[in-house]
Amino acid sequence: MLYNEYIKIKSLVLHNVGNKLNQDPLFFSKSDIKLEEDLEVTLSHYFLSHFKQDEHYHFYHDVELELNETYLYISRIFDNPDALMEQSINLAKHLYNQSTHPKIKGGEFHVVYFKDCILDGVTVDAIGLFKSETKNVFLEIEKISNGFEIESKKGIDINKLDKGCLVFNTKKEKGFVLYAIDNVNRSSEAQYWKDDFLKITSIKNEYNQTNNFLGITKQFLTKQLTNDVDVSKSEQIDLLNRSVDYFKTHEEFNKDEFERNVFSDEKIIKSFRDFDEVFRNENEIELNDKFEISSTAVKKQARAFKRVLKLDGNFDIYIKGSKELIEKGVDEDGRKFYKIYYDKEK
Fold it and tell me: pTM higher than 0.85, yes or no?
């Protein structure tokens, strides 16, 4: 967990990085930004307040870690903070060379050196990389002798961070520890910030393990199960509920126990194991069969588990209880129906 209270901005350099595919310009500053106290407070809020997730990343490279350009330039800044300007230009050039997708917007590229970051109880320096792509309209009101003047301008909304990365000066030999955000380009073909520019992967911790396993379970139950086993929609939703409930009611995950408690049926267990193996291999995911459960990851994934039974265009039934309380049938006229049992109306 990151504590923002004592963090100070030591230095800040700002460049402008366009879309290389569109032959947009790449503009470099010649000096760093001088910050007054009020501006430092505002910028600290803009840069740091959005990093609330428990998912940690680290830099990687398929051949050798030092061949990851962002990792290399960040390492040089930590080794010599006075080299921030020189290395920020290298970082901007690298980002420009990765900006070759038509959906990528140009924008301001901030490289920031932070002091006194407290990460998991340890004080370390950090380097922030931020790109501002979205401009919002705001009104500037000025008082004049006979009233007011209103002028419309475009600028950065400090409550919205488009792209960000915060690299902590710890575990350098393993690719550092970092946070990363991309709130603009979410389609797979436009994930250049994390995949191409930063080239990062999730650190294997309880958050990552919980998040990935629940993601695999959701994919299996919604995409694969009905192809292998004859189950009704209500039974499918019941399995989704049971999966989430397992993670909500246990502190530690045990794969064998999870399969027995949630799936029960041997056909479903076999189908899940086959799907799990293929999915991990295709997506290069490493998971343990036992790990501590992250409640934060459970809350995040639970929101993505759609547990609604849609009947034609007339009814949506939200199911969050036991499948024993819902009964499926067909009447004498061939019309399908569900019978629902309950104790009280709320």
Answer: no
